[in-house]
Design goal:
three-stranded antiparallel β-sheet, about 10% strand, 3 strands, Arc Repressor Mutant, subunit A, 4 helices, mainly alpha, about 110 residues, single chain
């Protein structure tokens, strides 16, 4: 295995792991929207960087595992359409199925 391939595989597995950590962390706040800036503080003690958190939140949102909305208008939004500090999110019904192992996603390790 080449070094680059090995590094890519490590990065991929870490992404899958981070997605599971973020989803399970948000699941512990059932039914509640949490501001992404507050969520960032919850993960600051982990080995997850802010960029990795953003990548996981983006994946979880785009895959339907979490719902995001603007904190001012309460309209649905995405990281592509709104500033990080203006978004809050909560776990969707599909995300709950992933956490409880009723459904699976190859990019989320729970």
């Amino acid at each position: 295995m080449e070094i680059k391939e090995f590094q890519d595989r490590i990065r991929q597995k870490k992404f899958f792991h981070n997605n599971g950590i973020v989803l399970k962390g948000m699941y512990m706040l059932p039914g509640k929207y949490v501001q992404l800036t507050e969520l960032k503080y919850a993960f600051c003690e982990t080995a997850m960087s802010e960029q990795e958190l953003i990548e996981s939140l983006n994946y979880l949102s785009e895959s339907g595992c979490i719902n995001m909305r603007n904190i001012h208008s309460w309209k649905d939004t995405t990281l592509a359409d709104c500033e990080f500090n203006e978004i809050e999110a909560k776990v969707s019904a599909f995300g709950i199925k992933i956490v409880t192992c009723v459904r699976t996603d190859e990019c989320i390790k729970v």
